[in-house]
Amino acid sequence: MSESTLYIKVINDELIVVSLYVDDLLVTRSNAELVKQFKAHLMQAFEMTDLGEMTFLLGLEIQQLQQGIFIGQQKYAKEVLKKFNMEDCKSLCTLLDPNEKFSKDDDATKVDEGLYRSIIGCLMYLTAIRPDIMFFVSLLSRYMHCVSELHYKAAKRVLRYVKGLWISE
Questions:
Q1: Are 135 and 161 in contact (CB under 8 A)?
Q2: Model pLDDT for residues 118-147, shown as the tens digit of each residue
Q3: 24-42 burial by CB neighbour count: b if 16+ within 10 A, else e?
Q4: pLDDT per position as a tens digit, 5-27
Q5: What's the whole-model pTM score?
Q6: Burial profile 46-67: b = 16 or more Cβ within 10 angstroms, e = fewer
Q7: For residue 118, with 0-12 CB atoms within 10 Å meaning exposed, 13-18 middle and 19 or more buried, which class applies?
Q8: CA pair distance 161, 31, nearest whole angstrom
Q9: CA-to-CA distance for 154 and 148, rounded, in angstroms?
Q10: Which residues have C-beta within 8 Å of that of residue 98, sequence separation ≥ 6?
Q11: Residues 167, 92: Cα–Cα separation, whole Å
């Protein structure tokens, strides 16, 4: 059974939206006074801290500027590269060799499936704002139960591409 995580209330054509994730609330509105009243009401009922304007949520970096709202994952990308000891690797500007053929039954040496799954999981999360890597990450995810050196090197190549996207050398 699932629970609601998004709540919307309309009062006299004014809107307040509350998103709940574990123990975090994200509140937005069409009227700032409505949010002030909502926070005051919650603070009377619960022990809570107002962290102010959102700057980081679920691995996404949020910048709210006059020109608009910008979402990034540079910090997460750096953490992923560090996790797999690739923070000092050389970056790439292309994802995969288009002539590379992947197979479940290739003759390449088998590698640690746990490590490969971890890399693919981290890369999947990066696809939230980088659809350009989605096809390749999805392709590589097909081989999580029969990982060879060929698949592992391709996954590391995607990590090197990620480094080129976010981290200047």
A1: no
A2: 999 999 999 988 889 999 999 999 999 889
A3: ebebebeeeebbeebeeee
A4: 899 988 888 888 988 888 888 88
A5: 0.75
A6: eeeeeeeeeeeeeebeeeeeee
A7: middle
A8: 42
A9: 10
A10: none
A11: 11
